[in-house]
Structure formats: C-alpha cells, structure tokens
C-alpha cells in the first residue's frame, strides 16, 4: 500500500506510556503537604493549562489545512498529555491516604519525620520520610519504600542502622528526630 493511502494516525509518534500507579485498591501514604501539591497541580492543569492549550488549538484549527499545521498538531499532542496527566492524578488521589505526623510520637521515627543521621565518615544528612508520590532526594525527601527509610522506621535518637547499597553497606547513627517544618543545619 502506498503512503498516500495510509492513515494520518499511522504517522504519529508513539505516545509515552502513562506513569504506573499501584494496583487498584492498594493504598499509598502521602503527607498533607504532598497531597496539597498534587491537588494544586491538578487544579493548575485543569483551570490554566488546558483552557490555554484548547484556545491555541482552536485558533490553529481556524487557519485551515490541519494536516500540515504544526501548531494544531503539537497543540493536540499537548492536550493529550494534559488529559493523560489529569486522569493519572485523579486515579492516584483516590488511592492515597493522607498521614499527618503526630507530635506525640516525636521520640521515634515514623512516616513524615525529619531525621538527621550521621554516616560512618561523619557526614550529616537530614531526610524526611514521605510517600512514593512526593520523594525528591535533592530536597531531602526520601520514599518510605527506600532502603534507608525502611531501616530508620521505628528507630530512636542514638540508634544505629546498616543500609545495603550497591557500593557496600553503610552505617548511620540517628542524631535527631522532629516533626513539622525542617530546621536549618
């Protein structure tokens, strides 16, 4: 079959797969701050980005021939990306449990805690144990599913933990536990 008779859909690039959410019914934990950020992202996409792109696509469609109209083609692609992200966020938010840390548990490490540790070389680091939807290692937010967080959960100040890493085991000592906003070191 010649290319002249091929559908326009056959020439489209493959769209990236949607991020994988946990199996339906499997609940995940998130901090109140992380939940708020996801709601803000969803609100921004729905109320700002989507209407803006929709009007751009409508303006591009009004120019006529859509098959060679780059603004129209890329606008439709961006609209699909926004809709895909909105669907993902809606499903994800349905499977999240918001966990607010309690000050009554300040002597042990639980979900949402800020933990200052010292490694065997004397280097101090502060991390917050958060859900998988909000981790950001550069900001000191580590997933509760990470090896370090799993080793730290339930520990107290002065406890030591050993974490297996690809370059070898590392020992950490818990120096401080706090809940709420981080303090500057």
Q: What's the short story on this structure?
A:
The protein has 185 residues and is an alpha/beta fold. Helix content is 33%, strand content 19%.
Span of the ends, CA to CA = 68 Å
- Which oligomeric state applies? single chain
- The level of helicity is 25-40%
The percentage of residues in β strands lies in 15-25%
Main sheet attributes: strand count, strand direction, barrel closure: 5 strands, mixed
Q: What is the second-level CATH architecture of the largest domain?
A: Roll
Number of domains: 2
Give your account of this protein's structure.
The protein is of the alpha/beta class and 185 residues long. The chain has two domains: 27-98, Helix Hairpins (Orthogonal Bundle), CATH 1.10.287; 103-178, Chitinase A, domain 3 (Roll), CATH 3.10.50. 33% of the residues lie in helices and 19% in strands. The protein contains three helices and seven strands. The strands form two sheets. Strands 5-4-3-7-6 form a five-stranded mixed sheet. It has a two-stranded parallel ribbon with strand order 1-2. A hairpin with a 4-residue loop joins strand 3 (114-119) and strand 4 (124-130). Helix 1 runs antiparallel to helix 2. The longest helix is centred in the N-terminal third of the chain and has 30 residues, at 32-61. It is elongated, with a radius of gyration of 23 Å. Residues 1-16 have low confidence and may be disordered.
SSE blueprint and pairings:
Layout: E1 28-30, H1 32-61, H2 70-94, E2 96-98, E3 114-119, E4 124-130, E5 141-143, H3 147-152, E6 160-163, E7 170-178
């Amino acid at each position: 079959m010649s290319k002249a008779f091929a559908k326009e859909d056959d020439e489209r690039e493959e769209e990236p797969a949607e991020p994988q959410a946990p199996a339906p019914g499997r609940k995940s934990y998130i901090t109140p701050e992380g939940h708020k950020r996801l709601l803000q992202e969803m609100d921004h996409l729905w109320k700002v980005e989507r209407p803006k792109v929709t009007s751009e696509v409508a303006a591009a469609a009004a120019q006529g021939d859509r098959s060679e109209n780059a603004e129209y083609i890329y606008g439709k692609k961006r609209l699909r990306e926004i809709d895909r992200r909105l669907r993902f966020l809606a499903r994800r938010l349905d499977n999240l449990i918001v966990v607010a840390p309690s000050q009554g548990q300040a002597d042990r490490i639980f979900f949402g805690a800020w933990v200052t540790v010292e490694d065997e070389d004397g280097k101090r680091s502060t991390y917050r144990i958060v859900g998988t939807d909000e981790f950001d290692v550069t900001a000191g937010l580590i997933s509760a599913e990470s090896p370090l967080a799993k080793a730290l959960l339930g520990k107290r100040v002065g406890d030591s933990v050993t974490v297996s890493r690809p370059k070898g085991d590392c020992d950490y000592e818990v120096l401080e536990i706090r809940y709420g906003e981080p303090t500057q070191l």
